[in-house]
Amino acid sequence: MERVNPSSPLPFGERVRVRGNFIMKEHLKHNLLYLIIFIITLFGCGSDMNTASNDTGSAVFSLKWDTSSISSKSTIPNPQSEIHSYAPQIDCSALGVLTVTANVYDSSNTYLINGGPWDCTAHSGTITNVPSGDSRKITVYGKDASDRIIYRGQATGVTITANQTTNAGQVTMSTVASDTTAPRDGSLSASAGNQQVSLSWSGFSDSGGIDYYKLVYSASSILSSCSAGTQIYLGAGTSYTHTGLTNGTIYYYRVCATDNAGNTSSGATNSGTPQSSGTTTTTTGTTTTTGTTTTGTTTTTTTIDPAAPSSPSVSINSGASSTTSTSVTLSLSATDNVGVTGYYASETSTTPSASASGWITVTSTTSYSASVSFTLSSSLGTKTVYVWFKDAARNISASASDSITLTVSDTQPPPPRLLLRAGRLRPANR
Hints:
The chain is mainly beta. It has helices at 12-44, 46-53, 92-95, and strands spanning 56-65, 75-76, 89-90, 99-105, 111-119, 124-131, 133-143, 149-160, 165-175, 187-193, 196-202, 210-218, 230-235, 239-243, 251-259, 268-272, 279-289, 292-302, 310-316, 322-323, 327-346, 360-375, 381-391, 400-406, 418-421, 424-427. It has three domains: 53-175, Immunoglobulin-like, CATH 2.60.40; 187-272, Immunoglobulins (Immunoglobulin-like, Sandwich), CATH 2.60.40; 310-406, Immunoglobulin-like, CATH 2.60.40. Helices cover 10% and strands 50% of the residues. A seven-stranded mixed β-sheet has the order 5-4-7-8-9-1-6. Strands 19, 20, 21, 22, 23 and 24 form a six-stranded mixed β-sheet that branches. A four-stranded antiparallel β-sheet has the order 13-12-15-16, with no helix packed on it. The chain is flat, with a radius of gyration of 37 Å.
């Protein structure tokens, strides 16, 4: 190939050819640069790729603080945001709010994921890795320096699209009444089936309202609090089915309620033992008759009870309101599809395990009722007796309870009457 001296002039055709080669080389350089950028983007955004495979998205919201109890002097200019623009806001320090957190729930009020904490002065928050779907609910909490919830708001009907950021809109944050009292506990019911336990709870109450329930379990021991064990449910629902369990194993449960101010109850407890129902076991035996060996088959059908006793009831002294004796009579009743085999009576509300000492064995019956003796603790005041029933499969019923007031028994005779006779005190009967 002939070498070209760049300092010497070229004919017009040669200049066009060289210019075209230069343009082509520049075009290739740009394409190569774009390809490198694309590869870096593709493999450098691993979290986005994982998000896509997990069908999750993000939700962003802004906050509007309730200003009814705050002076206008507390307003501050709105911070800049790449996603939203805000009207002037209230200085969070004037409200006592330090941080903001959020929980996301699905359409059945089951907890999905949380977000935060964020500095409240941002007046916004972004929650990532939210499972995609319709009718998501976002509950936002404003907390003080002691982590107490003092403001609360919600965004409902939010649709989360995979790999996208959804604007959940403006959440109005309203004050939460000062409350340090935990919710009142209700009861927990457990019904065991084949490799599962169906749980439901009711009767929990709080003057400020219940925000959510937390359900935990253990396969080894009774749970002392909802901070122990393994969490299997968090949300505003009142039932849950625990599946994938091992038949014949006792599972212990506790459910606690948390109110809108963040106070949590001590919880209600119960247990369940999954069992297969209607199991048929076939065994082969050998019978010898006069030197002749005959092989036969014996079929044994065992019906196992997957349901706990129901309709538990107890009445102290036929419903009397008070007693002067610690010895009382309990009127008990319960039903079971196979048979009630025992009861447990106590002044403690904690559900006993099926193997606990204190169970009283009764003759198995599908409809149990009896009057039994019970001794109250000796201190005066209101006494509450709790009773549970169990069946042969070690299923334990929900508790039943009744109360009675123990008062002082008047066993002293009246003092003698005295009369004044001839200047001397004498008994009136002389």
